[in-house]
Amino acid sequence: MCLRQVSREVSLLQIILFDIDGTLLAKQSTEGDERERFRRAVLEVVGKSPATEPWKYDGMVDPEICRLLLTKVGLSPTATAEHLQQVLTQVGEIYLAMEKKPILNKGVANLLPILKTSSDHRLGVLTGNLASVAEEKLRITGIRSHFSEVFYSDGYFNREDLVRAAVGQCIGKYQLRDPKSVTIVGDTPRDIEAANANNVEALGAATGFYSAEQLAEAGATAVFSSLEPSKGLLEALHMKKDWTLGFLSA
Q1: 88-124, pLDDT tens digit by residue?
Q2: Could you tell me which of 17, 34, 31, 18 has the C-alpha nearest to residue 130?
Q3: Which of 80, 97, 114 finishes a domain?
Q4: What is the mean pLDDT of residues 117-133?
């Protein structure tokens, strides 16, 4: 009897995984640093500076971006493979050493504590950033403690594979019966498409450089203009209606 009750309680958990850049953090506060860490890493390793404008890599994972930039400066597939790990190491080291001021998007500082108080939810991040870069951003902005699950891009070359691994780990750890118990919140079409490819819920945050219409076209279940807590957003994140209404009336 007790075991059945525990199993049922665990299976009803909702896992919410947030992207970082453009979703939790204001894109304008990170975009320049993102371009610079990649540009300098490639330049330092192979002596060639890749073009970073226009930036076409939103929603991609760091290893994928590095590989593409090495190809764009003229390296062969063999040379790209030989230099890739060194470039990735430099990408992380450059970011840690550089001066930066990432800023939380509107509503994030209010939303995360609300979700964390719910016994029915577990919060995490799922980002294309390398672990060293992501941890630094979460540390600087003071939100690392809100997340019990972290999924970083080290070792992955496309977002769909990263999402697949994250969902599998969540299902196993929390004994989830349905991938729909996992919700991914992201600001780019690639976030949404990767979530849909793995049969998890996809919420769009039109808080980066993509419009609500673009995120809806990519297949988002719902799209919000900010992460400021609202009845619609909290219900989309599966907060209980009575609790949601109590919070909003407080």
Answers
A1: 999 999 999 999 999 999 999 999 999 999 999 999 9
A2: 34
A3: 97
A4: 96
H-type alpha helices, 50-200 = 62-72, 77-97, 108-116, 131-141, 159-174, 189-197
58 lies in which domain range? Answer: 29-97
Instruction: Tell me which of 64, 97, 130 is where a domain ends.
Output: 97
Q: pLDDT, tens digit, for every residue of 2-21?
A: 444 444 444 589 999 999 99
At 228, give phi and psi (nearest 5°). Answer: -65, 130
Residues 36 and 48 reside in one and the same domain: yes
Q: Tell me the two tokens of residue 33.
A: 């640093």
What dihedral do alpha carbons 15, 21, 24, 30 form, nearest 10°?
160
Closest CA to 14 of 125, 108, 114, 119: 119
Alpha helices, DSSP H, located in 73-155: 77-97, 108-116, 131-141
Cβ–Cβ < 8 Å for 231, 244 = yes
Q: What is the mean pLDDT of residues 233-249?
A: 71
As a whole number, mean pLDDT of residues 60-76 equals 97
Query: What single DSSP character describes residue 144?
Result: G
Q: What is the CA radius of gyration of the chain?
A: 19
Distance CA 55, CA 58 (A): 7
